[in-house]
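The pair is quoted verbatim as follows:
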Amino acid sequence: MLDSFKESCLRYCYWVGDTLKRLLVIVSVSAFSISLAVTLYGGLYWAILPSSATSITVKWDFTSCQVVGQPCSFIRSEVGLARKQMAQGSRYNVELLLDVPDSPANREVGMFLVCITLLPINITTCSSAMVPFRSLLVTSLESVILLPLHIARLASSTNVLSIPLLENHTESITTLSSTTSLQLELQTSKLQVSSSRLKIWPCDLSGVRYLMYHHPLLSTLLGVTTILTVTCLTAALAIAKFLQPHRVVAAPRTKSNHDLADRQARARLNQEYRQARLREIRDEEEVVADDGHSTEAESITRQETVPSTLTTHSAVTDSSTAGCDSYPGIPVSSLVSSSSVTVQRLDTGLADHQKLE
């Protein structure tokens, strides 16, 4: 009893160790593959996207009221650009993204202007914007459905306000220097902004580069998944090619007990079939022999019967001709004709018997 318990414990420990070893190998290989895919995608991202495509965080400044403590002036900000961020003669797009909380104050803001000034050339451009309207019923339903995510701080009740400031803007080549900074102004004091960023990208950004710049999360997911799939398939094919045998050796076929039993069974069946066939042939020969004996006996009997009949017929004829006078009422011609008919019938029977023989 104790030995069986020890053996069961050892088997369980071996099973646990083997399972942990397999899990460790799977986790290690998965982590290495994912890390390799992320590294390759990061290198591809920085190699494909131009340095002029950038996203800059914006910090706002305003003058607060002394009594209320709210902004009493327009909300302004100045964003500095890197050297040759906007090269002369190139075309660029500039867009401002505002994360606006879904609050009653923002719902009452309405339409407002957003202006941008290019420094040092002092070119100002303004665009109108408005906080998107959402009904109270939709907001309440969304809050109830996403309540667990709001509690876990995985979601927030904010709206992303996208404001295009410059489209197909061409940097002048007549000025002494390119644009070095951008001055932004929200011409309202009631808008509440939680965060904002300024996106600048060249106009020739299209295709995969456009997707990677404007939708980084989606492009990262697709890129890492694609690279991981290609890497795993390549590694699997390489391992299969490396481990396959260089020469196939066919093992000689040995005569096993199973093959011997099959051969014996087939030989037994063949012997039984032959014996049954021989019995059938013998039965047929016996039947034919019996028929032959019966035919010979009949022919002998007929041969014995015909001479006696002929003798009787001749005797009858002689007696009829000799003693025709003893029959006074019957003419002699009728007796002679009857005897001739009898002779013809006997001759026909003898000819048929000879044909049968």
Summary: The helical segments are 2-48, 104-107, 136-145, 147-151, 208-214, 216-243, 257-322, 332-356. The beta strands are 54-57, 75-80, 91-101, 111-119, 123-130, 158-170, 181-186, 195-202.
